[in-house]
Write a structure and sequence with these properties.
The complex is a heterodimer of chains A (about 450) and B (about 300).
Chain A (H helix, E strand, L loop, with lengths): L1 H29 L3 H4 L1 H5 L11 E7 L8 H11 L3 E7 L5 H10 L6 E4 L2 H9 L7 H6 L10 H4 L9 E13 H7 L10 H11 L18 H4 L19 H12 L6 H6 L4 H6 L5 E5 L2 H11 L7 E5 L10 E11 L6 H12 L1 H9 L9 H8 L8 H5 L5 E4 L7 H16 L5 H17 L1
Parallel strand pairs in A: 1-2, 1-3, 7-8
Antiparallel strand pairs in A: 3-7, 4-5, 4-6, 4-7
Chain B lengths: L1 H12 L5 H34 L2 E2 L7 E2 L3 H8 L1 H31 L7 H13 L2 H11 L6 H10 L16 H26 L3 H9 L4 H12 L1 H16 L3 H7 L13 H11 L3 H30 L1
Antiparallel strand pairs in B: 1-2
Helix pairs in contact in B: 3-14, 4-8, 4-11, 5-8, 6-12, 8-11, 11-14, 13-14
Classes of the chains: A alpha/beta (about 450), B mainly alpha (about 300).
InterPro entries (chain A): Bact_solute-bd_prot1, SBP
Subcellular location (chain A): Cell envelope
Pfam family, one (chain A): SBP_bac_1
């Protein structure tokens, strides 16, 4: 039996090792990262002969395969700067920001960093991984006004650590064929929430495999919860969440009535929002503008059967200007510990500047520098819906960030996501879920 | 010169390294490679993790010592309680069921039946199959409206599909579904261990029991079960430890594209991951990990005690 005992102790030790390794994997390394910190001082003396020295930059991003503009951007940049080679590191879209933060804490030699969301950005700033950009912006004469206020929205204590290159906003996509079949008039660019719900109910039909759902709300928190912030009265970082109640009531009612698909089923089956739109299962889709480029592509390749489609402005609360919508910005930052900061900053300037914007717009994606020219260039892409409403839908009146910049936004995001999931799966009632948000966010804010 | 001789003789009379010590050193030198690895990759991180449980740290900025604050937080943290509770329920569900199924299969497939090897392979297959793939298939089969299971149940019982359990998508059925999945996936492995144990049972004991007039059930309870005790102990221990450590199965069955578990499916390791890497609260996460470590350690100690009394 002694053998068993030894084995038991061994197993316990193994478990402990697993536990600890899991949680300290990047802790252990961060001691080692102290060394590279010294490196930038050496290289920053080098930029004098910037012209010809071959440089290889590592760019952290997600979904290389599925994103249309990475390759054209790299191509455009390296054509003008033949001495630069850009390698990408695809960290995957699930938990991208968590991956990035872990990589950086572990001292990964990434130079250019794509910033996917605000909570992750706020974490990276707190962790001191990002190069402050105010100085660079001043020196190189970048006009932040061109970004339509988004740069100001990601300021942390008067310093900015990233520049936006994409600025997406939410829209309603709809399938014209399904509306025609149901004999329901198309959605318009001026819909209140009630009108939106009414249209969704009208266009719902069938059952079983032929069922057409009137609307589709993806499992993300933003796809449901943020109807609540469009009146501009509240934000999701204030610590008070009662204002979300009517929104949750509306969406749960739609779910119970079979107007939208069941949240828990969508989640366990990992159903992608694009799939249900492609195969004519949903008449409208509540989604961000990033889906325009994908939908155009997939119609061309035949993957999307929803070939006759259009977009309209996001629904809005009573008494609020149409074109009020949610926004997400995607930005670029430079790793503070990068040894090739100057080259990285130059690439950042290109991607986030006018030239980058032109390249991004040519792929059907909305760049952060958004002027009339860019809008008409997107609307004139082959495959973009030809009706006037769809073109007009690209003009926004006011965009609220899905998650505003806040020192604690990462912690708040975790709490909001947990409760969103609990409410939508009916693990908790709306009241209890909102109460839990109040209680826990309060705690985070007071810490 | 004289001095040197004295030294030399002194050395030869009383060698610096005695024979016994030499044996020890040889033994240690054999253990060393393994132990150095253990110390470097297990012991040091372990001690570091225990220290981390008493600090507040985001992974980059300086640590702050906070004493037992992290543990006080644990006592009040309902999300952590939920995760702990779910893990315990899961363990209680998985352990006995897996043991019973694995033992039953092992005994059945220890008989001389046709296609025995094929059956053994078939039951072992889920264990070697990729978790991601089988979880996706499982979710499809158990899909509330489109899945074959609910359609079959609907045809047999006539209950409308909307009223049937929604399995993984249903907060009340999720735990049952994941227990069923785990048992199905892992029982083949424990079956093999039990099969090995059965080979070790002395056939003479069965003969003796038979001569004493013991029937099949008596032989099972009085010969097979006691003879398998060491195997059962081993299986029990591994199962309990693995159940407390569970993470991948829950993520693959429930978490969806954004890796989010809710109150009915949140488990300890997920909570630790979430706290450490999403909320960047390494200290608090390590306090949770320490709790998990102590639980497993406690279970193991209890099992050793019971084993000593009963196994020999």
């Amino acid at each position: 039996m002694r053998f068993k005992k030894t084995m038991g102790i061994g197993l316990t030790a193994m478990l402990a090792a697993g536990m600890v390794a899991g949680c300290s994997g990047n802790n252990g390394n961060s001691g080692a990262t102290a060394a590279p910190t010294a490196a930038p001082t050496n290289s920053s003396s080098a930029p004098a002969d910037k012209g010809n020295e071959p440089v290889t930059l590592k760019w952290a991003l997600w979904d290389w395969e599925a994103t249309a503009y990475y390759e054209p951007l790299i191509k455009a940049y390296t054509e003008a700067n033949p001495h630069v080679t850009i390698e990408y590191v695809d960290l995957g879209s699930t938990d991208y920001m968590t991956m990035l933060s872990t990589q950086l804490s572990g001292g990964a030699d990434l130079d250019v960093l794509t910033i996917k969301d605000i909570p992750g950005y706020s974490n990276l700033v707190k962790q001191n991984h990002l190069e402050p950009l105010n100085g660079f912006i001043g020196e190189s004469g970048i006009d932040t006004a061109a970004y339509g206020g988004t740069v100001e929205q990601i300021q942390v204590k008067d310093e900015v650590y990233a520049l936006p290159f994409r600025s997406d906003f939410w829209l309603i996509y709809y399938n014209k064929d399904l509306f025609d079949k149901a004999g329901v008039p198309y959605p318009t660019n001026d819909m209140t929430f009630d009108q939106y719900e009414e249209i969704a109910r009208k266009v719902t039909s069938g059952s079983g495999a032929d069922k057409v759902y009137g609307a589709h709300h993806h499992t993300w928190r933003s796809a449901v919860q943020l109807f609540g912030i469009l009146d501009g009265q509240n934000t999701v970082v204030d610590g008070k969440y009662e204002f979300l109640k009517p929104t949750y009531e509306r969406i749960l009612k739609l779910q119970d009535d079979g107007i939208i698909m069941d949240y828990a089923t969508l989640k366990t089956s990992s159903t992608h929002y694009s799939g249900v739109f492609y195969n004519n299962s949903v008449a409208t889709l509540n989604m961000g503008s990033w889906f325009i480029a994908t939908q155009i592509d997939k119609v061309k390749s035949g993957e999307s059967a929803a070939a006759n489609w259009g977009i309209v402005k996001y629904p809005h609360p009573e008494g609020v200007e149409p074109g009020t919508t949610l926004g997400t910005i995607t930005s670029l930052a430079v790793n503070k510990k990068s040894a090739k900061k100057d080259a990285a900053l130059d690439f950042l300037k290109f991607v986030t500047g006018e030239e980058g914007a032109t390249v991004i717009a040519s792929t059907g994606t909305i760049p952060a520098i958004k002027n009339d020219e860019v809008i008409s260039s997107i609307a004139s892409i082959d495959g973009f819906p030809t009706d006037e409403n769809s073109k007009e839908a690209l003009n926004t009146f006011k965009t609220y960030l899905e998650m505003p910049m806040h020192e604690k936004s990462a912690d708040i995001e975790v709490i909001l996501n947990e409760n969103h999931d609990n409410i939508m799966t009916k693990n908790t009632s709306i009241d209890k879920g909102l109460e839990d948000m109040n209680k826990r966010v309060e705690l985070v804010l007071s810490n | 010169m004289q001095k040197e001789t004295t030294l030399a003789t002194g050395k030869s009379n009383k060698p610096f390294i005695t024979r016994g010590m030499k044996d020890h050193l040889v033994a240690y030198s054999f253990i060393a490679p393994n132990f150095i690895g253990f110390a470097l990759f297990t012991l040091v991180p372990m001690i570091f993790a225990i220290i981390l449980a008493f600090v507040k740290w985001d992974g980059s900025n300086p640590m702050n010592y906070v004493g037992i604050d992290n543990f006080i937080r644990l006592i009040k943290d309902t999300t952590f309680h939920k995760a702990l509770w779910n893990t315990v329920v899961y363990t209680i569900g998985v352990v006995p069921l897996t043991m019973a199924c694995a033992l039953a299969l092992a005994i059945l497939l220890n008989q001389k039946i046709v296609g025995r090897n094929f059956m053994r392979t078939a039951f072992f297959f889920p264990y070697v199959a990729s978790l991601v793939a089988v979880a996706a298939v499982w979710n499809f089969i158990f899909s509330p409206t489109m899945g074959p299971i609910n359609n079959l149940l609907h045809t047999i019982t006539g209950i409308p599909i909307e009223d049937l359990p929604r399995w993984a998508a249903d907060k009340d059925w999720a735990m049952f579904t994941v227990i069923l999945f785990t048992v199905w996936k892992n029982m083949g492995y424990y079956m093999v261990i039990y099969l090995a144990g059965l080979q070790g049972v002395n056939p003479e004991l069965y003969e003796a029991a038979e001569l004493d007039g013991a029937n099949g059930w008596k032989r099972f309870t009085n010969v097979t079960i006691p003879q398998l005790a060491p195997t059962t102990f081993f299986v029990l221990m591994i199962l309990v430890i693995n159940s407390f450590k569970v993470y991948d199965i829950f993520i693959n069955l429930f978490a969806g594209a954004d890796n989010q578990l809710n109150d009915s499916t949140r488990v300890l390791v997920y909570q630790i991951y979430n706290t450490a890497f999403r909320s960047l609260d390494y200290g608090y996460a390590n306090a949770m990990a320490l709790v998990l470590f102590l639980i497993v350690m406690g279970v193991t100690i209890v099992q050793f005690r019971g084993e000593k009394r009963y196994g020999q």
